[in-house]
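Chapter review: from sequence to fold.
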Amino acid sequence: MATFRLQGSRVLAVDMTGDAVKAKNGSMVAYDGQMAFKKMSGGGEGIRGMVTRRVTGEQMTVMEVKGHGTCWFADRATEINLVRLSGEKLYVEAGNLLCTDAALRTGTSFTGLRGATQGNGLFTTTVEGTGQAAIVSDGPAVVLRVSPQYPLTVDPGAYIAHQGDVRQSFQSGVTFRTFMGEGGGEAFQIRFEGDGLVYVQPSERTTIAGDV
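The C-alpha cell string follows.
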C-alpha cells in the first residue's frame, strides 16, 4: 500500500512501490522514479459513476498514478489533512478531496441540503474502505468530536467532511455571518448528532445552503 506523508502542510508526498493512488486531476507537482498517469472517468467508477455524478452535480475529475518512487501533490497552496480509514466511510465535499489509496472506493451519497454548500445539489462524495485519504482545507482544518452528549452545529461554508456514526439535520436561523451584518436572507446550519468526527476549515466558502 502506498505511504502518505506531509512535507510541510501544503504538499503531500506519496511513496509507491508498484502501488497506485487516485488523485485530483492536475494536482501532481513533482515525482521521481517511474510513474504512469491515467485519467479516470467519473471519479474512477466507470460509466455508472460518471452518470451518477452528472445527475447529482458532484463533480470530481480524477487521475490514477501508479509506479515506483515518490509523487508529490498539492492544490492551490491549500492545507492538507491526512485521514486514515479502517473500514469506515468518509463523507467529503468533492472539491476538498485531493488523493486516496487506489483500494478505497469512492462514490456519491444523498445527504440532504448539506450537499448544496458548493452548489452541488443534494449529494456528497464518499470514500470507503481501508487506507489513507488526503483532504484539503482553506487554512488548517479543525477536527471536532461529536458525541451523544454534545451535538455539533456547523456553518455550511466551513464544513469539509465527516466520518463515524453521525446523523445530520438542517436548521434555519442565524448564521455566524449574520451576527456580523453580512447575512442576506434565511440562513441554514448543519447539526450533527451521534458519535464521530467533523472536519471544518477556518474560512467560509460562498454557499447556497449557508445563506439563501
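Two observations follow directly from the output. The longest strand covers residues 123-137. Confidence is low (pLDDT under 50) at residues 46-58, 114-121, 207-212.
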